[in-house]
Every structure is written in structure tokens, then in C-alpha cells.
């Protein structure tokens, strides 16, 4: 079973690739990459406190 957040990310990536005109052939050739970053809200708050 897939985590609902992972499913949502994959759906968004799929839509972005389609909107960008990336074809299945281009994906199969391996010349396209998708990079995703994530930070927890706690991490943002803690880093702001350290800066101040």
C-alpha cells in the first residue's frame, strides 16, 4: 500500500512532465530527472531560531 502523500507527489510529477511535453520515449532514454526536496515545518522553525 502506498502512502497518500507519495501518491500525490507522483501524480504531480506526472502532470508536470505531461505539461512540459516530456514523452514516454524521452523518459525511457533516461535523459529526464525529477528531484524532490522536503522539509518538516519543525525544521523550518528550528532553523529560523538558530539564525536569530
UniProtKB/TrEMBL annotation:
Gene3D superfamilies: 3.40.47.10. It comes from the Eukaryota. GO terms for molecular function: acyltransferase activity. Pfam families: ketoacyl-synt (PF00109). SUPFAM superfamilies: Thiolase-like. InterPro entries: Ketoacyl_synth_N, Thiolase-like. Transmembrane segments: none annotated. Residues 2-38 form the Beta-ketoacyl synthase-like N-terminal domain. This is Beta-ketoacyl synthase-like N-terminal domain-containing protein. The lineage of its organism: Eukaryota, Metazoa, Spiralia, Lophotrochozoa, Mollusca.
Amino acid at each position: 500500500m502506498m502512502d497518500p502523500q507519495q501518491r500525490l507527489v507522483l501524480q504531480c510529477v506526472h502532470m508536470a512532465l505531461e505539461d512540459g511535453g516530456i514523452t514516454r520515449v524521452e523518459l525511457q532514454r533516461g535523459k529526464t530527472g525529477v528531484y524532490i526536496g522536503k522539509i518538516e515545518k519543525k525544521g523550518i522553525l528550528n532553523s529560523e531560531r538558530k539564525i536569530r
